[in-house]
Design a protein that fits this description.
This protein is an alpha/beta fold. 19% of the residues lie in helices and 23% in strands. The two termini are 19 Å apart. The structure holds zinc ion.
């Protein structure tokens, strides 16, 4: 019975602020000065204050097999379906197990989780669709190393056969021209290309039929596990990454290197300087640096980007486990564009300065404990999916009130509770 008389946090009343109750400290400048800073990869590699790590991003993909009209160039439809599913599975295994960088030798580069996954995405408007397609086309199905610009880079396959354009990343699997393959001088190297809307990988079928017998007599076949590396490399391009071995790729943690395929043991540079980065050409392709991860996640976070349009839009779904309490003696600065799926609580007497954008999932709220200060510094808080979130609420406390301060071009939009004087906090 005593419990009923103990005063506690559960009796604190929440008051949802209207924008007029928030204090403008600086006049509106008319433009946001931060747009460049908002894209900096550092705000995305480890989303420490919001999630502790980047939010898991699931990219919707589908797979197209380009075959000739005779149906002899690549897998049969039943083989192809199994291969496509396995290819996505193998690619996800690599995305989920980021490896330590081999270069530079002795590096201490942090190994962060990529937090990127692929998902085969059928077209829901077509009954029975499984996101795997077969095309029988004598013009657009053959890859020739010497005539790449004609059908390789042209995007004609995507133009003609693309499904879910703009919302699903289309993966095209092509094969070499069989006559070329018989020529001793033809470069039958595996190849690929990656753009934000589609990627193309050459040689999956050819590789799957190749069997290598090692010195011990063990045979290895080059199935989807092998080509998943090349697919991920092309997806890396699609997500905004560049090659690392030559020139500057926008990252300080991806060293230039001789682009060795593997160790050579011949006294040359490839005895030691073999990269395992996903964006070099090597047999491993299983490592991503913090900058590379941050750059991809910046693209996934960027409002209106082609990469963001391919995501499963779960960033708008409420997730109570994604709630976060921020508590610090120092001012916490949160920059970049972030999606928040749970409630954000700013702890007692904690100062949080938000820059850029914060997208709140429907049903979420920001709660300020007594004495908390939330500074919106050229920051927009809104819902990215045309829904409402609850808004910013302060725990009422006359002696030590919480405050919201707006600076520059700052807005709090899509709020459900605006103008509502008070409400009981959630239990
Ligand atoms: Zn490349």
């Amino acid at each position: 019975m005593l419990l009923f008389f103990i005063p506690g946090a559960c009796q604190t009343r929440l008051h949802y602020l209207s924008e007029t109750e928030m204090k403008y400290e600086e006049s509106r400048s008319g433009k946001t000065a931060l747009s460049g800073q908002c894209r900096n990869w550092k705000h995305y590699a480890s989303d420490t204050l919001i999630h502790g790590k980047p939010p898991l991003r699931t990219v919707r993909v589908n797979v197209h097999f380009m075959n000739n009209r005779a149906g002899t160039l690549t897998f049969s439809e039943s083989e192809g379906r199994a291969y496509a599913r396995d290819l996505i599975y193998q690619a996800n295994m690599l995305w989920s197990k980021n490896a330590p960088m081999k270069l530079p030798p002795g590096n201490q580069t942090p190994v962060l989780p990529s937090r990127i996954r692929l998902e085969l995405s059928p077209d829901s408007s077509k009954p029975g669709d499984d996101g795997i397609y077969f095309h029988y086309d004598d013009t657009l199905s053959y890859y020739n190393f010497y005539e790449q610009s004609k059908i390789f880079y042209s995007g004609k396959q995507y133009e003609r056969y693309g499904v879910g354009k703009g919302k699903v990343l289309n993966i095209f699997l092509m094969e070499h021209y069989p006559d070329s393959m018989r020529s001793a001088t033809y470069r039958k190297r595996n190849n690929g290309v990656g753009f934000p809307d589609w990627v193309m990988v050459i040689g999956c079928y050819t590789e799957s039929k190749r069997i290598y017998v090692d010195e011990r007599g063990d045979s290895i076949s080059f199935g989807s596990w092998f080509m998943a590396r090349l697919l991920n490399h092309e997806l890396g391009h699609a997500f905004g990454l560049h090659h690392t071995w030559r020139g500057f790729d926008g990252c300080d943690d991806t060293p230039r290197n001789p682009n060795c395929w593997n160790y050579t043991h011949n006294g040359g540079p490839c005895d030691s300087l073999v990269s395992n980065n996903m964006m070099d050409y090597n047999t491993y392709q299983d490592a991503l640096t913090p900058c590379q991860i941050g750059r991809m996640h910046a693209n996934f976070a960027l409002r209106g980007s082609k990469q963001r349009a391919k995501l499963r839009p779960d960033y708008c779904r409420y997730d109570s486990s994604a709630g976060r309490l921020l508590f610090s003696r120092d001012t916490l600065l949160i920059e970049g564009q972030h999606d928040l799926r749970g409630d954000l609580t700013v702890g007692r007497n904690t100062v949080v300065r938000l820059r850029c954008e914060l997208r709140m999932a429907a049903g979420t709220q920001i709660i300020l404990e007594p004495g908390a200060v939330l500074i919106l510094d050229n920051c927009k808080i809104y819902n990215a999916c045309g829904e409402k979130w609850k808004g910013i609420a302060v725990m009422e406390n006359r002696k030590n009130p919480a405050r919201v301060i707006l600076k520059g071009e700052s807005h709090v939009l899509d709020v459900e509770q605006e103008g509502r004087p008070s409400a009981k906090p959630a239990p």
